[in-house]
Amino acid sequence: MKYSKIPVARSIVSLCVSKNINHVVISPGSRNAPLTIGFTHHPQINAYSIVDERCAAFYALGMAQQLQKPVALVCTSGSALLNYYPAIAEAFYSDIPLVVISADRPVERIDIGDGQTIRQKNVFENHILYSANLYSEIVLETEATDKKLQQKQFESQKHNEREINLALNRAIEEKGPVHINVPFYEPLYDAVENVEVNPLQILPEIKERTYSENQLKAYADLWNKAKRKMIIVGVAQPNVVEQQFLEKLAQDPSVIVFTETTSNLNHPEFFTRIDTIIGPIEKDENREALFRELQPDILLTFGGMIVSKKIKAFLRNYNPQQHWHVDPKKAYNTFFCLNKHFEVSVNSFFSNFFPLIQDVESNYARFWKDIKQKRQARHEEYMDEIPYSDLKAMQYIVPQMPENYILHLGNSSTIRYAQLFKWKESLRIFCNRGTSGIDGSISTAVGAASVNAEPTLVISGDLSFFYDSNALWNNYIPSNFRIVVLNNGGGGIFRILPGNKNSENFDTYFETTHNLKAKSLCEMYSFEYESASSSEETEEAMKHFFKASERPKLLEIFTPRKINDEVLLEYFSFMRG
């Protein structure tokens, strides 16, 4: 086996392997050659080469999201590292473990006019769990006899090994991004065979706090007195909550559970489409009374970011008396009324809390479940009469989704359309909601697909797709990968916002209208390409889009640019009935 001649490079590779970090995404470069040599020659490492660092980082994010363990990123010095930042911010807010390993120039080469040098130390400090800034190592020849130089090298090596351990452990323990910045002296390409590598080992420690009966009793007493309890689940991994707890919540007449498409949590009694409940109330002449009827005494939340702006606006205006959030790591004061953060996993919390609580007589759940049924009927009625549009296209996509797919949703309009539909329970649904950016949706989905045997579909708007089209520039896209692009000729989501939408200024600087098509990209990257421009063509295309093929496929659905906002805004008025 081949190793870099530079000890710190060997230590990084060895410690990653020892901590079961065996997927590494490498962007080509020279300064990172010692790391590339070590990772690509190690039999326990799966190495991937992706040129575009921004795409590479989101690709690794998608892998880590699916694997639920750290994935490493390796790049050269200079601006290459900065291209990782959007994915690092997403990983930070979505609790996804990434290990960023950047090669650097020795400290004395920074700010003297050398090429590919920037100030890399602590460059991600606002969005990183740990920054390990390593020392440069000069390779000593075996005949070296300078004792002071040997001692300095020994001390540098031990500092580096400790910092590497601490960084990797934080990624594992706290599930988030860490940064290891390692300066290298030349020569960079020298390698050695079969050297013994035994770096310092510091084991990660994953500790989970628990709450005793005495600590929970006061909260259980509040729960047992409240006649209106609302639970909202944000972004979550599939099957994050044990079924027994879901059944307990579903049977309590004083509890309603709101989930989102990205909650990956299913029960027939739960409310899967928050906006279909809240949106019509906003337009009702009795909205004040209805919002007071919906206002909970206690709000319990868990999971990550919440997509629905409507539920945020409602609860910020109609605060519950108590808001509790359950998460072992963090709690956001999303509704400006957070009372308690239970720093445990959801299952741990429920297992200790449920023995202390009881069902409470109330008409809260029944009242809103009746409304939910009426809204479903109105939804179906509205969908049958709307013209061809983004929303109509989604109506054709949803029922044609095969079972057991992994579904990735682009941000902005796509995720919001998806929130209005009931998807098959076997689907696992993801979206980059940590920062809600459009910049890496396709790359994330490609990374997820590369580590899954199950097929993957990503649904994206046109701007999001074209922005991230370099995601298709890699050799790891499986043939069962599918993309649907809703191409309405611009950033249609902006037409929903207030303001003058019929001006050249709006077209150019907000909606960013265009005439781009994905067909040429599909030819370049060897994707099968199909298109549809009407209800009939879309419905027909979806019937065979998911059939097996030798290459990945892309379906581009062209929709009218100027009516999508009207169709969506009218939806909530119609749902009121």
TrEMBL record:
EC numbers: 2.2.1.9
Q: What's its catalytic activity?
A: isochorismate + 2-oxoglutarate + H(+) = 5-enolpyruvoyl-6-hydroxy-2-succinyl-cyclohex-3-ene-1-carboxylate + CO2
Source organism's superkingdom?
Bacteria
Q: Which residues form the Thiamine pyrophosphate enzyme TPP-binding domain?
A: 414-557
- Any one GO molecular-function label of the UniProt entry: 2-succinyl-5-enolpyruvyl-6-hydroxy-3-cyclohexene-1-carboxylic-acid synthase activity
Q: Which family does it belong to?
A: Belongs to the TPP enzyme family. MenD subfamily.
- Tell me what this protein is called: 2-succinyl-5-enolpyruvyl-6-hydroxy-3-cyclohexene-1-carboxylate synthase
